[in-house]
Amino acid sequence: MAEAPPATAGDLLSEAREHTDHLLDRWAERLTEELAGRDGEALAYALRTPGKRVRAALVLAAYRSAGGASPAIAGVAAAVETVHTYSLVHDDLPCMDDDDLRRGRLTTHRRFDVATATRAGFLLVPVAARVLAEAARELELPAAILGRMAAELFQAGGIEGMVGGQWLDLAAEHQALALPELIAVHRGKTGALIQAACVLGGIAAEATAVEEAALTAYGEDVGLAFQIADDVLDATGTSEELGKTAGRDAQLAKSTYVRLLGIEPARAEAERLARSAVEHLRTAGVPTGALGMLAGYIVSRNN
Ligand code: GRG
Q1: What does the mean pLDDT of the chain come to?
Q2: Whose CA is nearest to atom 26 of ligand 1?
Q3: Could you tell me which CATH class the domain 9-300 is placed in?
Q4: From 163, 166, 245, mutation site for ligand 1 pocket: most ligand atoms within 8 A of C-beta
Q5: Which of 4, 33, 54, 123 is the most buried (most CB within 10 A)?
Q6: pLDDT along the chain (303 residues), means of 10
Q7: Burial class (CB in 10 A: 0-12, 13-18, 19+), 290
Q8: Phi first, then psi: what are they for 102, rounded to 5°?
Q9: Is residue 66 within 8 Å of residue 205, measured between CB atoms?
Q10: How much is the pTM?
Q11: How far apart are CA 48 and CA 223, in angstroms?
């Protein structure tokens, strides 16, 4: 089945935000009933912070590009966003990037306290598993497909992906990394989850092996492009535009594409990767409408 006629990237993101925010709001409500007091409030606060929902939009677009048509895919998108939210809560802690502002609001540890935010971050990991399991049930997917999606998501969130990349990133503060090392950091801390978003969309649609390989390659390229664009925005945007402290990479003396290549070459590399991402889909005969627009958005966004 061909995907529906593509809207704009803005429309795709609005749709992803609407569905994901609604589901995460319901989970926030449920979790505050399960967990009384400050811990439940911190979980709900983190889940309700308004993100762009790029990863959710990628899940939806990848699912449809492989012929998926159920609105219940929003639950898979919410699961990916829950893992992402946990990573932001922990990334902002004093032992990591030590930041006060996220998504235009106080970071969870500044709104509550470090111990509460640390617990909330950890608690979001099993929440993500529950959100994913519920989505698979609503999509009426066989257990083996849920197993594949869970393995993909939590492997991307682990030592071979997000945690490993963040670990390398922290270890490299105040050091100048060479480009191959920087690519490993970026692919791990940011790219792996973005790639998983694309692959999960494909798995949920029971994509063919060729489609899934194309989504994997697309996700790898847009994942790296996303973090390069983030490096550029950190150097060029304002805190107001970004909803987080601008210039933090330079303050923490982090290795970034901007530090290594300069702003314009970094931008050019992100754009090259976005084109390459779409080329993988084209070669495999996967519809490029929505995913092409999201690749363009990822490298041209202003926050
Ligand atoms: C224990 C070492 C260790 C790590 C724990 C904290 C952590 C795991 C990983 C950090 C991963 C991270 C936060 C990477 C940066 C990814 C990134 C560019 C985030 C911003 O994404 P956007 O712009 O944000 O999509 P919104 O707010 O729109 O969702």
Answers
A1: 96
A2: 51
A3: mainly alpha
A4: 166
A5: 54
A6: 66 97 98 96 97 98 98 98 98 95 96 98 98 98 98 98 96 91 98 98 98 98 98 94 89 92 97 98 97 98 93
A7: buried
A8: -150, 130
A9: yes
A10: 0.97
A11: 24
